[in-house]
Amino acid sequence: MPKIVDHEARRAELAEAMWRVVYRDGAAAATVRSIAAEAGWSPSALRHYFTTQTELLSFAMEHVLKKATERFHAGDWTGPPRDVVQRMLEEFLPLDQQRVREMEVWLLLAARAPAEPVARTRLAEADDGVRRATELAVTTLANAGLMAADRDVPSETARLHALVDGLALHALLHPDLMPPARLRAVLADHLDDLRRPSPL
């Protein structure tokens, strides 16, 4: 009788092995060979699931999105709206080792996006999550009277989305210039500035 393989269980096993490699050694170390060794598999068995490095990175990003969603849903979103919005947006900044590694996966996948559709698809999913979070943040501030009346939600959502992405990228590339305390301060300054009438 042929052996029945639970492919979802095997993918979950690979996800955990992959993330151990990424967390310990960085996203660039997540190769077919290193993950196969971590999982106790042969490289040829792993290639049954991932034929290219981009497919592997896409799988890593899928895992990142899953973990980020779990963190988000498990978060404490009670308290003053301004504080809640700050904490919510900080989830998208590399403020600890876990989120630094997640950003590394994002950056490596982004480098492949112009030429590889699978990378573009996964990045679009990640980008949509950040956009929805920034829209929720801006709407929350507006409904709480914490945004000037002449500022509109779509424009401020776009600006905030760009700020969050920019802060995350700068923190990843220049951690000495953008430590966690400065990231939080820049984000806080922007959120507080939304109370003032638009200078435009």
Automatic annotation (TrEMBL):
Instruction: Give the Gene Ontology MF terms in alphabetical order.
Output: DNA-binding transcription factor activity; transcription cis-regulatory region binding
The keyword Transcription appears for this protein: yes
- Record key words, sorted: DNA-binding, Repressor, Transcription, Transcription regulation
What stretch or stretches form a coiled coil here? none
Q: Where are the transmembrane segments?
A: none
Q: Which PROSITE patterns match?
A: HTH_TETR_2
Domain HTH tetR-type: start-end pairs: 8-68
Which Pfam families does the entry link to?
TetR_C_6 (PF13977), TetR_N (PF00440)
DNA-binding region ranges? 31-50
Has keyword Chloroplast? no
PANTHER family in the record:
HTH-TYPE TRANSCRIPTIONAL REGULATOR PKSA (PTHR30055:SF226), HTH-TYPE TRANSCRIPTIONAL REGULATOR RUTR (PTHR30055)
From the Swiss-Prot or TrEMBL record, give the protein name.
Answer: DNA-binding transcriptional regulator YbjK
Q: Which organism is it from?
A: Micromonospora pallida
